[in-house]
Structures are given as structure tokens and as C-alpha cells.
Structure to design on (245 residues):
């Protein structure tokens, strides 16, 4: 149990660091692009091997790409947040409780959301590229791996929840 | 739950304390308190048998069905 607590504390703290660095960096990048601060000429937006020079494109395209970027970051941060909360509970020694299962379920949901958002955003990026006349062909990707892992985690958390209910029932049988 | 546990009533009638009953029945006072407060999900026949034996009563004296209470 001590090992679990110690490892969970390390993972939680690394997660927290990644969370805040990602959150602030994404906000700053967005603000810089939207307010045209700094040298945007050398900045490129990369996604699924597609590269778009931020500085040379239309304002509407810039806003679209920032919204795409923020939506992906938001989903990532949601998953990370539930991961931090989950390992925070493990750190306190709270294992197999309703709260843990709830966070695990949310992580599964986030992975499913990631797969959907990835498809939608790749469609938006392709639209921007077509609008800007950057001829790279239509490239819409769908993250099947994230979807499968998400579904798997969701099902596992559901089974764990049933197990918890059984244990609770057993404990309340006098 | 539509099943009401009247253990406290029976204890009052027999002028017995929860701890004494727990000792005689052979379960912990905490578990008996769970039963008394109606938080228990189920009761074993062996527990019911022991309680009825000690309190000299019928299962119906301890467990009552009240249809108007929500289940």
C-alpha cells in the first residue's frame, strides 16, 4: 500500500505539472495568435503531418485553427484532470470506491471524446487548407485506437462499479 | 425501504441494551446498530434466528412491511 501511495503521489505531481504548463502555454499561444503579438511568420500549425503557416493565412482561418487547438487541449486537460484526481485518491489510500470508478469512467469518456474531436478537427483543418488554397488533398483522420481504449476503460469501470456494489451489499448484510 | 426494522421497539419491551443483545447474539454492536437504524441491505436467517431466540419473539415482531413507505 505504501508503494502505491508513493507512486501515485509522483504520478499526480507530474500530471499536475503537465496540466498547468499545457493550460498556460495553450492560452498564451492562442492569445499571441489572436492579438498578433510576436513573430507569427515562423509559426506553423501541425496536425497529422499537415503543416499550415499561421502568419500567412487569413484571420478567419487563424481563429479556426486556434479553436481547433483549444478544443484538443481542452479534451486532453479533461482527461488529465480526472487522472490527477484518481491518483490523488490512490495517494490517500482510497481504492475501489465510487469516486475512483467515477474518475476512471470520465477518463474513458474523454478518450472517446478525443477520437470524435480528432475527427472533427481534422475536418476543420482540411477545410482551412482548402479555403487557403494549400493543396494537400482531403485528410480526415479518426483515432480508432483512442476510441477502442476509451470503450475498454469505460466497460472496465462499469464492471468495477458492479463489483463495488456487490461488496457494499455484502458489507451491509447482517 | 418498505421493510421497517423494529429492533429498538423490541429492545425497549425486553428492557435490553443493544450491546447486551450484540453479545448474546454474537455479532458486533456496530453491525447490530446498522440493522437497528435500517441501513442494512439484508439479514441472514442465522442472525434473525439468534435475535428471535434472545428476544423471545417472532421475525414479524422485528421486521414489518409498510406498503406506504417508498421502496
Amino acid at each position: 500500500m505504501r508503494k502505491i501511495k508513493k507512486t501515485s503521489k509522483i504520478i499526480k505531481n507530474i500530471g499536475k505539472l503537465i496540466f498547468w504548463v499545457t493550460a498556460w502555454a495553450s492560452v498564451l499561444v492562442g492569445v499571441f495568435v489572436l492579438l498578433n503579438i510576436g513573430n507569427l511568420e515562423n509559426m506553423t500549425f501541425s496536425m497529422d503531418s499537415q503543416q499550415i503557416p499561421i502568419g500567412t493565412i487569413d484571420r478567419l482561418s487563424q481563429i479556426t485553427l486556434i479553436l481547433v487547438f483549444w478544443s484538443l487541449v481542452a479534451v486532453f486537460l479533461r482527461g488529465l484532470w480526472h487522472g490527477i484526481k484518481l491518483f490523488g485518491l490512490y495517494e490517500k489510500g482510497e481504492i475501489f470506491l465510487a469516486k475512483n470508478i467515477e474518475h476512471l469512467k470520465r477518463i474513458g469518456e474523454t478518450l472517446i471524446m478525443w477520437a470524435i474531436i480528432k475527427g472533427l478537427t481534422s475536418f476543420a483543418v482540411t477545410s482551412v487548407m482548402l479555403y487557403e488554397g494549400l493543396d494537400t488533398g482531403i485528410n480526415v483522420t479518426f483515432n480508432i485506437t483512442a476510441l477502442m481504449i476509451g470503450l475498454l476503460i469505460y466497460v472496465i469501470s462499469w464492471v468495477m462499479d458492479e463489483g463495488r456494489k456487490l461488496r457494499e451489499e455484502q458489507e451491509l448484510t447482517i | 425501504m418498505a421493510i421497517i426494522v423494529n429492533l429498538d421497539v423490541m429492545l425497549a419491551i425486553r428492557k435490553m441494551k443493544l450491546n447486551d443483545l450484540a453479545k448474546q447474539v454474537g455479532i458486533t454492536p456496530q453491525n447490530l446498530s446498522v440493522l437497528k437504524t435500517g441501513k442494512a441491505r439484508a439479514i441472514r436467517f442465522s442472525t434473525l434466528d439468534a435475535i428471535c431466540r434472545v428476544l423471545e419473539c417472532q421475525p414479524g415482531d422485528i421486521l414489518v412491511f409498510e406498503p406506504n413507505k417508498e421502496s
Observations:
- The longest strand of chain B covers residues 3-5.
- The mean pLDDT of chain B is 89.
- The interface with chain A takes residues 27, 31-32, 34-35, 39-44, 47 of chain B (CB under 8 Å).
- Chain B has five helices and two strands.
